[in-house]
Amino acid sequence: MSEFNECLKVIEVDDLRSVGHFFTWSNKRAGNFAVNKKLDRALANWHWHNSFSYSMAHFHNPGVSDHSPVTVFLMERRTSGNRPFKFLNFWAKDARFMGLVHRIWNQRAVGNPLEAVICKLRNLKRELKNVFGNPDPSPKREALRVELGLIQSHLLSTPSDAG
């Protein structure tokens, strides 16, 4: 480890701010035989920190692997708390989509043509968020996913607990 730490100093990188699980590897055993370590890291140099000062690494539940997957978020400083709108392509395949678009697009909008289009897009965005904002995939699958996440979080936070 001392050689690895010396290498990190020489190449001038350090850990990104991280959230999620501290231990990123597990031998997937229970009780006294459980071993959890922080093997995986997200590293960045000074130029990265300067360009992406609000970036962070999120270490997720390991799922079927013995390592926790990591996602690096390239966040910019934001002044508002609103998330940007993202159109999801699979919405267009939903049976309700075209009717919703036709209904919104046929509404009367005042102003010049550009203002009318902007108004209609804004209304369409609001309707899309209302209709598709809370997707309801298989409730059983989602319940199992939540349960698995809770179990994995419990195991990673208290590795010595066999229960």
TrEMBL record:
<dbReference type="InterPro" id="IPR036691">
    <property type="entry name" value="Endo/exonu/phosph_ase_sf"/>
</dbReference>
<protein>
    <recommendedName>
        <fullName>Exo_endo_phos domain-containing protein</fullName>
    </recommendedName>
</protein>
